[in-house]
Amino acid sequence: MTEQLWIVLVIVVLYMAVLAGISVVVRRSSRTSEGFASGGRVFPAALIGFLLMSEFIGTSATLGTAQQAYTTGISAAWNVLALAIGFVLFSVFVAKKYKALGENTISGALARTYGEGVRTATSLTMTCALLIVAVAIYASGGAILATLLGIDHVWATILVGVLATLYVVVGGMRSVVYTNLLHAIMKLAAVAVLAGIGLSRVGGIDELRAALPAANFSVVGVGWAQIFAWLIAGVGAIFATQYVVQAVTTVRDPERAQRAGFYAALMLVPFGLLAAVVGMVSAVLYPDIDSIDALPALAVDIDPLLTGLVMCGLVGAILGSIAALIIGSATLLLKDFYRPYFNRDGDDRKDLVFLRVATFVAGVLPIVLALLAKDVLAVTFLAKSLRAALAVLIVLMFYKPGYGSSRAAMWSILAALVATTGWFLVGDPFGVDNAYIAVATPLVIMTVAHLFRRRPAPVEAT
User: Fold this and answer.
1) Into how many domains does the chain fold?
2) Residue 431 falls within a domain, yes or no?
3) Which of 19-23, 28-32, 51-55 has the lowest mean pLDDT?
4) Which of 131, 137, 357, 432 is at 20 to 30 A from 379, Cα to Cα?
5) Which domain holds residue 134?
6) C-alpha–C-alpha distance, residues 46 and 86, integer Å
7) DSSP 333-357
8) 414 domain residue, yes or no
9) Do 76 and 68 meet the contact criterion of CB atoms below 8 Å apart?
10) Which domain of life is it from (predicted)?
11) Is residue 416 part of a domain?
């Protein structure tokens, strides 16, 4: 093992030790099921803003944006900018409403308007979506680790999955909140370092422009259809993601819930632009590599101390997102499946045991599928599309609760799950992105139900 690799490993091990220390220190808050799932206290809006930003910027978004920018240029940043727009809209329209509702699961919120059938359908869709994102994060994290450490991709992916899962099982939600503050800082620092070094090596912006096609500098280079699809999927994902709701309910009041979303949006904008620049400079410096290696190739070609910093940022990207994904999945399984059917007496000790087991299973299960994933950005996008279908019902729930019917709401969720996934698997026929299918399906079903539902017979005058 070379001296440079040892330096990188030591830096990463020290970073992991700091994370482990945080998890152990805050473990007291994870001795009850509610403390494990919510952190056991309220948190400042700025801290939750860092958490939300960190949750959405995993290795799939980091690596995927650089991968897309390697071929299409700066417009790949829309993949992340769409999330920033989503958080602004979330803050303006629904953040206060979620906090005032007092529910920390999306399924519970929708069940209040549409009934228990919708609760089950929502949990099923949300769990599938979160685990799909976990697949993409493990796949991209494994690719990064394999490149940086020079180890087999399979073992790198397994190592990423196991470490991320154990990290969450120990500390619960409170450790996720505190460590994600550190993760967010490290991720921003990592992409800033890589973008700065890359631009310096190609000779600056002017030389980058000369080396790449003019289309790579168009803000709409990927096409309006793709940009709108990213916007629909990104906005929908934020409106209807379990761990977003879980996070905003940990602040003190609705106004702070709203501010948390604005803070997250503010940090996402520079991150998306910097990640796209990394992909573009890699296209000039390493023209013959696979696009998925755009970021890792530059990361291993710099000073080992800086490589260690970048590696810590990427570790943060993996752990920050995975933590939110699997704890969100476990919370849904607890509230919507375990408690109603297997723990009706409300034994908190049993709930806590189930939460830890469910967290472990939700973390380990996607590892196998991650070994087969190729296009991490497309896989992540599918998960966003599935959540966009739920976002339609959430908007209707808050602003038009009488539209459609409870039965139509349940069937629209299940139909959107099948239709969106099927459309993705057959390659988005006719150039129609699966995000449009995800949004159109519940809209059509709820509209048809609203138009044809039975109205009460008029009362005759006497």
Assistant:
1) 1
2) no
3) 28-32
4) 357
5) 3-376
6) 18
7) HIIIIIHHHH-TT--HHHHHHHHHH
8) no
9) yes
10) Bacteria
11) no
Contact indicator for 111, 316 with CB cutoff of 8 Å: no
Residues composing the chain: 462
CATH of the domain at 20: 1.20.1730.10
Tens digits of residue pLDDT in 279-293: 999 999 999 888 878
CA distance 346 to 253: 28
pLDDT of residue 459: 46
Q: Per-residue pLDDT tens for 209-261? A: 999 999 999 998 888 888 988 888 888 878 877 777 777 777 777 788 888 88
The whole-angstrom separation of Cα 57 and Cα 76 is: 14
| 109-163: pLDDT as tens digits | 888 888 888 888 888 888 887 777 788 778 777 777 776 667 787 888 888 778 7
For residues 370 and 131, the answer to whether their CB atoms sit within 8 Å is: no
From residue 182, how far is each of 54, 206, 218, 404 by CA, in Å?
A: 9, 34, 33, 44
What pLDDT is stored for residue 61 in this prediction? 75
Burial class of residue 126, CB neighbours in 10 A (0-12, 13-18, 19+): buried
Long-range contacts of 197-201 (CB under 8 A, 24+ apart): 197/298, 197/302, 197/306, 198/277, 198/278, 198/280, 198/281, 198/282, 198/285, 198/298, 199/277, 199/281, 201/281, 201/285
Task: Tell me the C-alpha distance between 375 and 359, whole Å.
Answer: 26
Lowest mean pLDDT among 262-276, 296-310, 371-385: 371-385
First to last CA, the chain: 94
Integer Cα distance of 168 and 153 in angstroms = 23
Do 404 and 450 meet the contact criterion of CB atoms below 8 Å apart?
Answer: yes
Q: What is the largest CA-CA distance in the chain?
A: 95
Residue 409 within a domain: no
Three state DSSP letters for 138-174: HHHHHHHHHHHHCCCHHHHHHHHHHHHHHHHHHHHHH
**Tens of pLDDT along 405-454?**
889 999 999 899 899 888 988 888 888 888 889 999 999 999 999 988 76
Long-range CB contact pairs, 156-164, < 8 A, 24+: 157/367, 157/370, 157/371, 158/367, 160/318, 161/363, 161/364, 161/366, 161/367, 161/370, 162/364, 162/367, 163/16, 163/319, 164/138, 164/318, 164/319, 164/322, 164/323, 164/326, 164/363
